[in-house]
Amino acid sequence: MRRWFRTFLMGVLCAASATVGAQDRYPSKPITFVVGFSAGGSSDLFARFVADYAKKRGATVVVENKLGLAGAIAIDQVAKSKPDGYTIGMGSISSLWVLPQVQSINYKPLTDLDYLGKMFTQPLPLYVLADSPFKTYDDVLAYARANPGKFRWGTSGSRGIGEIITMSGFQHAGVQTTTVPYKAGVEANTALLGGHIEAVASTDFGPLLQAGKVRLLVETTPVKFPGQERVPSFKELNYPLSVEIFYGVVGPAHLPPAVVQWWDSLLAEIARSKEYAELCEKIAAIPAYQDSAGFKQYVTKGYADIGRVLATLPPSQ
């Protein structure tokens, strides 16, 4: 009887152990990938690419678009989620470096998030319709000087990096313009196509440029889009603010090491793939992969660097 009981007990324990092991394997249920920008934008297309790629590993990734505050609302949701790896998000320069230093944001990027991988950088030009009377950036400055406040340009969010960096350039040039913030770059583009504004400053210019619908006037970052090398940049003009626009995958702080390792492996594989190179070309992005440790170091250093620059800028309009 005792031998039978011992055998029975060992069987129960083994079964329980197997069940716990199965539950502990990551991922064992769908992962929510929160994107703070609208469908069809660069971040959204990247997230959906990751979701499709993850299927090769038997994982289900569901993209959730949560617009608002230049991506910060989405990152706030990620930061407050359970640190089990089943809620991740798309972080950007606006939500990780800029907004937490210029607005009251409910999360702290350096303590409330884990960093899974930096994936790409993008140009962020100021652009107009292809048939616009503004042929060059100098044309815009001349018009703005002669007509204070009448030049209207859209952005993908109030106090996002597109607004801040472009506004700092106009202020440095001594001209007065009118900023029109939208919830996403796609919405700003729609307003541009409809003639409601004269220009847009956004990373979501790729498809319009490839279709010949827009003209780039000036590049606000140090990175120029291939084939647009003649377009002047804020860096070349010695403007006070010209920083790299980056995007990467983040999760809530204190993720299990196994989760971080899983994403490290997946994102590294993605960064080496031909399909990802093709996606970057489509969305006017430049591959710039960094693993979890490298991305964390990059964000930490850049947060301090851009904080010093932001402290020197005039207040928002």
The fourth-level CATH homologous superfamily of the largest domain is Bordetella uptake gene, domain 1
Number of domain units: 2
The biggest beta sheet is recorded as: 6 strands, mixed
Low-confidence stretches: 12-23
As for the CATH topology of the largest domain, it is D-Maltodextrin-Binding Protein, domain 2
Radius of gyration: 23 Å
Number of strands: 11
Strand content: 15-25%
Strand order of the largest sheet: 2-1-3-10-4-11
Shape: globular
- Average pLDDT across residues? 89
In N-to-C order, the SSE pattern is HEHEHEHEEHEHEHEHEEHHEH
Count of helical regions = 11
Distance from N terminus to C terminus (CA atoms, Å) equals 84 Å
Share in helix: 40-55%
CATH class of the largest domain: Alpha Beta
Provide the structure class: alpha/beta
CATH architecture of the largest domain: 3-Layer(aba) Sandwich
Description:
This protein is of the alpha/beta class and 317 residues long. The protein has 2 domains: 9-122 and 245-310, D-Maltodextrin-Binding Protein, domain 2 (3-Layer(aba) Sandwich), CATH 3.40.190; 125-219, Periplasmic binding protein-like II (D-Maltodextrin-Binding Protein, domain 2). It is built from 11 helices and 11 strands. It has helices spanning 2-24, 42-54, 72-80, 93-102, 137-146, 161-173, 185-193, 206-210, 257-271, 274-282, 292-310, and strands at 31-35, 61-65, 87-92, 113-122, 125-129, 152-155, 178-181, 199-201, 214-219, 245-252, 286-290. The strands form 2 sheets. It has a 6-stranded mixed sheet with strand order 2-1-3-10-4-11, sandwiched between helices. Helix 2 (42-54) links the parallel strand 1 (31-35) and strand 2. Helix 4 (93-102) runs parallel beside helix 11. It is globular and about 65 Å long. The termini are far apart. Mean pLDDT is 89; it is low at 12-23.
